[in-house]
Amino acid sequence: MIPTITAFAHSPDRGRGQARDMRVRWALEEVGQPYDVRLVSFEDMKQPAHRALQPFGQIPTYEEDGLVLFETGAIVLHIAERHAGLLPADANARARAISWMFCALNTMEPPILDRQVAIFMEGNESWHEQRLPKVDGRIRDRLGELSIRLGDADWLDGDFSAGDLLMVTVLRRLNMSGLLRDYPNLDAYVTRGEARPAFRRAFAAQLAVFTAASAGD
Asked: At 154, which CATH number?
């Protein structure tokens, strides 16, 4: 059975590949697994039918052979465990790759998301100008540590893995901020991820949804 994922019918990222279904699309493209997409509106996401799949009314979800998953980390891990190409065969290397998956979502992403909240939801607050530099400082701390760890390697731990896939999608959230330019090896790391054919296919598929939705407005 071909898995089905859900995605925004009208993505708020305007086709930049930031919506979280991008992570799942990329993983499926990397392992060569065909998939179907069911587009949902913001209204649909809050309805009981969708909440039965995703209790918090978000996207994406993943359905296959009676299995329903939510949370991109869990979905990408499931895909990586069922198909070759995203996790190493060696047990220790596999465990390290999974550690990097958790790192991307639990260590790197929270301060980056905090920055987006500060800009898009708190921009009119009187304390915004004082808060943003502190948020950026926390991000720079994490970027500096990650930059040291990556060094001049292409990927985080040997070959490309699901850890890199999630880390690249998290770091791409900083594309408009200019922060990555201060860490040339991380900037190049993201560029390498974006150059992968599977990423390009996933990006094109997500962009096509936005383009079609915009043409219909």
From this structure: 1.20.1050.10
